[in-house]
Amino acid sequence: MKKVVKVKDLKPIHSAQTSGQRPYLEKLNDDELLEAANNPGNGQDMIMNRKTGKLLNGNGRAYELKKRAASANSKITEDTEITVELYDPYDDDLFVKPDK
User: pTM higher than 0.70 for the full model?
Assistant: First the structure.
C-alpha cells in the first residue's frame, strides 16, 4: 500500500553516518531527486514501517531530500510530498498459523 508523506516526516532507520554519502544523489537536480524518490523504476521504493514510521529502504534519498529542504537554493521543502510503500512487519498474514 502506498502513502504520501512530507519530507519532514521521513525517518531514516540508519544514521547519516551509517547511510554514508551518496554522490550520485548529490549530483541529481531537484526534479531528478524527486523522481528517484517517488518513481525509482527499479523496485527500490522508499519503504516505511507502518508501525514505527521508520524507513527500511530509501535512507540515502531521505537524507538528501532533508538536506535539500534545509537549503534556500532548492525547490524541495519540508512540506514536499513523497510517496512511500508501507510495510507492516507484524502483519498476521506474514506468519504461519499453527493448526488447531
Answer: yes
